[in-house]
Specification:
The protein is an alpha/beta fold. 36% of the residues lie in helices and 24% in strands. The strands form two sheets. The chain has a six-stranded mixed β-sheet with strand order 2-3-1-4-5-6, with helices on both faces. A two-stranded antiparallel ribbon has the order 7-8. The structure holds guanosine-5'-triphosphate and magnesium ion (MG). The site of guanosine-5'-triphosphate has 22 residues, from helix 1.
């Protein structure tokens, strides 16, 4: 049991190979950037704890390969994920066109209530832009998700994108907890013991990560 945080949220990074998923994660978790990063093979994780109101939320961020042949098993990648950063590269139109495929996969494997933030990365490369800001905005509107352009390289909006995702998950989750509380109270079920609410993420324990749940 992880006593350092009140909530543990699993979030996933998805998008074509080379859009900058790993570098967004390095920037957010370690404030680092690698010009010559290698394609991800399998799956990597990073954690970062942030304060939301008076609670400590630990984000467990999963990153897998955009390339099909290097990807982790899709169903376990998405299992238990409360949010996703869906990333494309503003300098490569094909990565924007692939978003349909990624959204389909999200709907197939992800939870219906998963919070999604669409991210157009590499905003520092304005001279090579192939996808207009408005195209990103319209797609986000159509799909009813949030949207931001970021640069992992110049550290533009990276913090904002992840924090927005985590705050939205917090909002959705606290509503759910409230609903659960109301239901349990009306049915007189002791699913919420005292003030303790538990959010569990199945595969964290399956992969022997340090904590499976957070308690408060
Ligand atoms: P896969 O692991 O193959 O799915 O790729 P990925 O999406 O994780 O991409 P990665 O983070 O490895 O970045 C690919 C290349 O883009 C690297 O050379 C990075 O240095 C570069 N890159 C990532 N983000 C940015 C950015 O914001 N601006 C610029 N100019 N380059 C970036
Ligand atoms: Mg990668």
């Amino acid at each position: 049991m992880d006593e350092d945080c009140d909530f543990l949220f699993k979030v996933v990074l998805i998008g074509d190979s080379g859009v900058g998923k790993s570098n967004l994660l390095y920037r957010f978790s370690k404030d680092e950037f690698y010009l010559d990063s290698k394609p991800t093979i399998g799956v990597e994780f990073a954690y970062r704890s942030i304060k939301v109101g008076d609670k400590i939320v630990k984000a467990q961020i999963w990153d897998t390969a955009g390339q099909e042949r290097f990807r982790a098993i899709t169903s376990s990648y998405y299992r238990g994920a409360l949010g996703a950063l869906l990333v494309y590269d503003i300098t490569k139109k094909s990565t924007f066109e692939s978003l349909k495929k990624w959204l389909k996969e999200l709907r197939e494997f992800g939870d219906a209530e998963m919070v999604v933030v669409l991210v157009g990365n590499k905003s520092d490369l304005l001279h090579s832009r192939e996808v207009n800001l408005e195209d990103g905005q319209s797609l986000a509107k159509l799909e009813q998700v949030s949207f931001m352009e970021t640069s992992a390289k110049e550290n533009l909006n990276v913090e904002e994108a992840f924090l927005h995702l985590i705050h939205r998950i917090y909002e959705v989750t606290s509503h759910k907890s409230l609903d659960a509380k109301t239901t349990s109270e009306s049915l007189d079920l002791k699913t919420l013991q005292g003030n303790k609410e538990i959010i569990c993420i199945d595969e964290v324990s399956a992969t022997k990560q340090p904590s499976s749940c957070c308690l408060h």
